[in-house]
Amino acid sequence: MSTSKDSDIQPLKRRIYLLSTAFVGVVLSLSAFFYSSVMEQKQTQARIESLADERLAQLKTSISATVEIIDSVGSFFDSHENVSREQFKVFTRPVLERHPELWGIHWIPRIKGEDRADFERRLRWQGFIGQITALRAEDNSMQPAASRSEYYPVEYSEPIARNRMIIGFDASSRSQNRQAMQKILSQGMSFASTAPFAIVQDKQGSSSIIFFRPVFGPEEPSQDPQERQNNIRGFIAALVKPQIILDALALHDQQTAMQMQDITDAPLTEAAQTNLEDIKEDWLSHMLTFSAMGRHWQFRLSIHPERLDELGHRDPNRSLLVLVSGLAFTFLLIGMIRDLIRTHRLAARERDRAQSYLDTVETMIIALDKDGYISLINRKACELLGCQEQDVISQYWFSERFLSEPDQEKEEFQQLVTGGKRIHQKRYSESKIRTSQGELLLIAWHNAIQYDSNGEFTGVLSAGEDITQQRRLQALDKIRSQAMHAALKGQPLSYVLEQVLKGIEEQKPDIRGSILLLDADGQHLLSGAAPSLPEAYNNAINGVRIGEGVGSCGTAAFRNERVIVEDIQNHPYWSGFKELAASFNLGSCWSEPVRGKNGRILGTFALYHQYPAAPAPSDIELIEGSANFVSMLIEQYQTEARLIQMANTDELTSLPNRRQFMNRLEQEFARSRRYKHPMALCMLDIDHFKRVNDKYGHAVGDQVLKELAVVVQDSLRETDLPGRLGGEEFAILLPDTDTDNASLVAERIRSNLEQMRVEPGNNKTLQLTVSIGVAVLNADTPSDIQPDELLSLADHCLYFAKQNGRNQVSFIATELA
After folding, report:
1. Are residues 388 and 432 in the same domain?
2. Which one of 216, 245, 274 terminates a domain?
3. Of 74, 153, 394, 419, which sits 20 to 30 A from 90 (CA to CA)?
4. Strands, E, within 81-159: which ranges?
5. Cα end-to-end span (Å), the chain
6. Are residues 637 and 699 in the same domain?
7. Winning range, highest mean pLDDT, from 11-15, 193-197, 488-492, 560-564
8. Domain boundary among 245, 269, 288
9. Which of 135, 177, 172 is nearest to 151 (CA)?
10. In terms of C-beta distances under 8 Å and separation of at least 24 residues, what long-range contacts does 711-714 make, across chains too?
11. In this structure, are 680 and 613 located in the same domain?
C-alpha cells in the first residue's frame, strides 16, 4: 500500500520538480531577455552618441583649422601696413590648395566715403570693374552702392577665378555680414561668423558661412567698442562651404545622414546636409548642439540600423539569442552556464569588432587605466610609435620610452586622478611622443575622461592626431612672413637670408644652416648667410669654385641636383675639406641647389649637423621648401637691383643719367652749403658732333660717346661724378673742389679728349674736341642760388666757350653771375 503511494508521489514530485525547474527557467530566461533588450538599447544609444561625437569632433577640427588660417592671414596684415595683391595670392594659395571647403579668402579694407573714388580708381587700374557695389536683397544681385560715410568692400580675393565678380562688393551691405562685423567691434570678439546664406558668385550652390577676423595693426587692439570702431583697418574673411565638409565626413555612405543647422535665431537655418531625404522611420538618430564663432549650431547624425551593425556598433540578435538559450535549457545551472558562455563569446566578438574598427581609423587611439598603464591601443598608434600591440599593452605610458617630457605629463595625469585638475582643461592637450627610432612627433590629443558608475575616475581614452608637419609648416610660414616683412622694409639680402636661417634653426636646434650665392661668372660660391657657422669656416669656403666632388655645395651647384653627405669624414666629395670640417665639428652636410624660375643656379642651401646624420622625409621637405623660398627672395632682390640700375643709368655709356645726376647734385649742393665746402660743376659738349652723325652715321656717333665716357671717367677722382644729360651733353660734379682745382681738372679732361682717336672704319681716324663750361659754388656765390641755377651757370660758361672758338674751358662765373 505504501509502495503504491510512493510510486504515485514520485511522478508528482518529478512533475512538480520539472514544472518548478521549467517555471524558474522560463522566468529567468524572460528576465534575461528583457534585461538584454534594455542593455542592447542603451548600448545602441551609446554607440550612436559616440559616433555623433566623433563626427562632430571632426567638424569642429575643420572649423578650428579655418580659424587658424584666417588668424594667420590676419596676423600677416597686422604686421604689414601695405600688402600687395601678389603677396596676398602667394600667402593664401598653399592654404586654399589644402582646404577645398574654403570657397575663398578675402581682404576687406575699411574705406571712408571721401576715399571711395580713389579706391574705385585703383580697382579699375588693376583691371577690375572699379565700382563699390552693394547687395540688392530682392534678387540677391549686386548694384552700385549708395553714398555712405564708410564701406567695407572686397579688395583682394583668392582664388580670383571664381571670386572676381565680388571685387568691390561692400560686405557690410549684406545683413548677415554686417551683424558679424558689428559683433566683433562692439563685443571685443576676435572672430565671428555669419548665418548660412547663398553667395552672389554661386547662387545655385550650397549655403555658405563667412568667418571674420578683424585687422587693427601691430598694436594690441583695445576692448573699448568706440576705439575698436575708430581703429579698425579691415577684416580677413574666409568663405566656407559646410556642405563640402559634411560630404567629406560622409565618405559617400548612403546609409548615414548628417545635418548642420544654425539655431542662433528663429527660424532655424540649414547650413548643410547629406542624405537627409533617405532617412526612414527605423533609422537611429542623435542630435548635438555646440557653439562656434559667436553662433549656436545643431548637428544631427542619423544612421540605418544595418549600417550600424556593419560598423560593429551593435548586435541586434543578442536578446533573441538569450531568450532562445534560456527556453532551450530547462536546467537552471546548465542554462546559466551556456548563457555566460554565449555572453562571453558575444563580448569577445564585440571587442574584436571594436578593435578592427579602431585599426581602420587613421587616428591614434590609446586608453590608459587610472594608474597610467596602456589598456588599449590601435594600429595607427602602433604605427606612429614604431612597435607592436603586444609590446606596449600593460606598459607604463609616462616613461621616456613613449614621451619626451614624461614627468610633466605624469603630473597632469595625477591631478586628474586626485580631482585637482578641472575636466575641461584636459579635453584637449598636446605632447611630444618618441618613436622607436628616437624621432619626436607632436600629437594633438582629444581626451575623454572615464568614470565608473560611482563617479570614480577609471582612466582616459585619447584620440591623437600627428600635427608635427602642420606645426612645422606654420613655423615655416611665420619665418617666411618675417623674412618678407624685412625685405619690404628694405633690409639687405644678407640680413633677410640670415633671418630665414635663424628661424629654421630655432625649429631644429640640432642643425646649422648656410646659404651660398653663385657669383656673376657662375663659377664660385660666395657667402650669403650662415649665422651659426664659425666665421673662420665661412671665410675658408667663401669663393670656393664649383665642380664635381667639391664638397656638398660645390657639387650640388655644379650638378644642379641635391647632394646628401651623411658622413663628411668618410665621403669622397669632402676629401679635400674633411680636416677643415672636423676642426669645426661638422659631421654631415645636406645641400640643395637654389634655382631661379628659368632653372638658373642662384646658389645653394645647406644644413649641417654636428654628427653624421641621414635626412628624414620631413627634412627633405624642409630643404626643398626653404630653397624655393630663398630662390624667390634672391630673384626679388636681383630684379630690384636691375630696375634701380636701369632707372638711374644711361644705357649707352653706363654713366648716371640726368635723374641720378640731378639727385646727387642736390645732395652735394646741400652738403657744401652746410659745411661751407667749395664744389665745382662742369658742362661738357662735343664740338661739331652733328657732323660726325651726318657723315659716319649714328653707330659711329654712339661709339664716340662710349669712348668719351671712358676717357672722362679715367680722368676723374673716385669721388667725382660724371653723367650724361642727353645727346652729346655731359656734366661732371666735383665735390670739395675750388676754382683753381676745378680749372685743372677741366683742362685735363679737355686735353685727354683732344688726344682721343676714334676709328670709324675704312682706315679713317677721327679726332674730336670738346668745350667745357665750369661753375663753382663757394663763399662768393650768392646765398640764394639753387642747384639748377648753378647748372645753368655752367651751361652759360659752356656757351661762352662755344662762341669763342671751341676746344677750350670757359671759367667766367664772376662775369656771368
Report:
1. yes
2. 245
3. 153
4. 102-109, 111-112, 133-136, 141-144, 150-151, 156-158
5. 168
6. no
7. 560-564
8. 245
9. 172
10. 711/749, 711/752, 711/753, 711/756, 712/684, 712/749, 712/753, 713/655, 714/752
11. no
- Specify whether 157 is located in the same domain as 125: yes
Helices and strands (H, E) in the chain, number of each type: 25, 31
Q: Residue 557: which CATH number?
A: 3.30.450.40
The Cα 367–Cα 461 span in angstroms is 4
Q: Which of 767, 724, 770 is nearest to 749 (CA)?
A: 770
- Residues 696, 551 share a domain: no
SS3 of 52-83: the string is HHHHHHHHHHHHHHHHHHHHHHHHHHHHCCCC
> What is the number of other CB atoms lying within 10 angstroms of the CB of residue 331?
13
Q: What's the pLDDT at 5? A: 46
Q: Kindly state the greatest CA–CA separation across the chain.
A: 175
Map grid coordinates 659716319 to a residue.
Answer: 696
pLDDT digits (tens, 9 = 90+) for 534-548: 999 999 999 999 999
Question: What is the rounded CA–CA span in Å between residue 740 and residue 752?
Answer: 19
Reported residue count of the chain is 817
Q: Which residues pair with 588 in a beta bridge?
A: 609
Angle between helices 2-79 and 242-250 (to 10 degrees): 140
**Host domain of residue 390:** 361-466
Placement of cell 681716324 in the chain: 765
What local confidence, expressed as pLDDT, does residue 792 receive? Answer: 93
Which secondary structure element, helix H or strand E, spans residue 184, and what is its range?
helix 175-187
What secondary structure, in 3-state letters, does 736-797 show? Answer: CCCHHHHHHHHHHHHHHHHHCEEEEECCEEEECCEEEEEEEECCCCCCCCCHHHHHHHHHHH
806 phi-psi bin (left φ>0, alpha ψ -120 to 50, beta other): left
191 is a domain residue: yes
Look-up of cell digits 660726325: 692
51 pLDDT exceeds 70?
yes
Confirm whether 521 is domain-assigned.
Answer: yes
Q: Which residue has the cell 673742389?
A: 737
| One-letter amino acid of 39 | M
